[in-house]
Amino acid sequence: MTTESRRVPLPEGPSAEDFRAFFETVELPSALCDAGLRLQLGNTAFARFCFDHGLTVEQMMESLSGARVPDDGASCVVEVPLPQGGVVVMELARRGACVSVVGRRESELMRGQLVVVEQALLEQARTEGVLLDLGRSVAEAGSEEELVAAVARGVKELFPGRSFCIRIIDARTGVLTSLYAEGRLKEGSREPLVLKRSAVGKLHLSTDAIPEGKVVVAAQVPLLFESSTGGVSAPLVASGQLYGVINLEYPSTLREEVDLQQDERVLVQLANQVAVAVKNAKLIDELTFVRKYLEELLEKANALILVANRDKKVVVFNQAISRLTGFAKEEVLGQDVFTLVPEDEHLRLASVLAAALRGEPVPNFELRLRTRTGEARVSFATSSALTSQGEVEGVMAIGQDVTVVEQLEQRVIHAEKLASMGQLAASVAHEINNPMTAVVMSAESLLQRAMMMGSAGAADAEKLRKILESGQRILRFTRDLTSYARPAKDKPERVLLNALLDRALGYCEHVVTQAKVKVERDYGELPPLSAVPANLEQVFVNLITNACHAMQPGGQVFLRTRREGREAVVWVKDTGSGIDPAHLSRIFEPFFTTKMEGRGTGLGLSIVQRIVEKHGGQLSVESALGQGTTFTVRLPLAD
Prior knowledge:
Layout: H1 16-25, E1 30-34, E2 39-42, H2 44-52, H3 57-64, E3 75-81, E4 87-95, E5 98-103, H4 106-140, H5 144-158, E6 163-169, E7 176-182, E8 193-196, H6 197-202, E9 215-218, E10 228-238, E11 241-251, H7 260-300, E12 304-309, E13 314-317, H8 319-325, H9 329-332, H10 346-357, E14 362-370, E15 375-386, E16 392-401, H11 402-452, H12 458-485, E17 493-495, H13 497-507, H14 509-515, E18 518-522, E19 529-531, H15 533-549, E20 556-564, E21 567-574, H16 581-584, H17 604-614, E22 618-624, E23 628-636
Parallel strand pairs: 8-9, 18-20
Antiparallel strand pairs: 1-2, 1-5, 3-4, 4-5, 6-7, 6-11, 10-11, 12-13, 12-16, 14-15, 15-16, 17-19, 20-21, 21-23, 22-23
């Protein structure tokens, strides 16, 4: 098989005349130049384009001669000034040594400008939409944390791909209260805040409003993030106060071209809006804190506080008055204030409320309050609660429980009576002591004479011995009584505790006898301790007396002493009825007593506790109903 090759003729390119004819028919104003922008060929449309703009072709080319020629394969746009003002736009494109020049008509130029304007308007609308949404978000924010989160969402939407940092501070102290960052912050870039000096000047921020040490003003703001290539910042300023700053930076990985001026303009607009929101949030936080503080102050105050509005409804009922009446706050709030007092007090309360609602204070008035268990007498001072316009909107009453005061007064009077009786008893003891001494001495003399008579005087001797023992007992009792009643010296002495306990028991001999109880002693060896003897005697006299009063006839009092380390310990135990757990925590309170009227003032144990603590010791109690009570006294031993 024979293969025959044939040469296919290629079509020849257009001739120069054909190219020139085609070039003339092109409607675009076009020209061909060499690399030096010297005209090689221009079509009719190009000549007409030059004429329409007041130039000849030669003048147009002369204006283009100074333009920069683009690189091979590239293009550029050149603006050529016109004699009558304005410019004409020419587009240059290079292919090898040939440069094409195309004139843009006004319609094409206008179309390009309209596209730019449309894009700018769309971007402006988007920015305004984001700022509007941000305004709603920050207005609805319930806390500073929610506000910062809303601002962060707005910044990310307005400036995608950027790193940013939002810092909020306390306007007075400059202390950083919130921080949010998108990006990797540099070490130590959290504080202090750095403000650009030009921005401070534009915002008219005074130096007094810039917290010293926490905020720095400089010519340039340092970059906060790693690998940032630049950035802008905007302070948060409202009403002349600085509330923070927003920093926006451009990471090196950002591909799009940035417009610093546009970003700064939008950031400042956003910062102004955020600053007002932060200021309002701070004010709301402060008002909330002050309100809660005042509510807590009223609630926990150590005074009876009651507030009623103009409709006589209770709006404040604090813990003190709740404890006094036994009514919970929830039971009383919103109820008529007259339900808190007995019916026969309504008229007096109505006159007081009427005066207070007229703006007239009532400095002091007493009335009875209803309680769960009965009634309590209180003393109130009232004042008018005013609105911000100065109108009376309610009545505030602040007072105290005078029931307790009256009880204390009665007990003090009773204590004074007992003190007077003590002084009288001491005087009586002194008066008894003189004649009884004569009786004892006479009995002793007669006893000796009867004993000398032998059997004849035996009967008389026995009678005289009983007279002598009874007289000596009376003398010993009066001597102990006056010794106990004598004011104690405050100077401590070295005391043997076991001997002191025996003396105290001697003072209580009549109480023990009257109560018909037995006393058992179990003393351990104790070294001396430093104490005021009379004061310690008062401690144990009181404890032994209380033990006797707590028992029925036939009971027992146990006195026990031991040494434990560097302490001497005394236990005073009885076999009485014990103390009710509800009363156990209150037995050391002044004037608290469970004894019958006339058997105690309630001052004893509180004084005993004070004396023991003054000696550096401790007093404790253990008790169970039906199983008796044990008081434990711990005292430090002398060195």
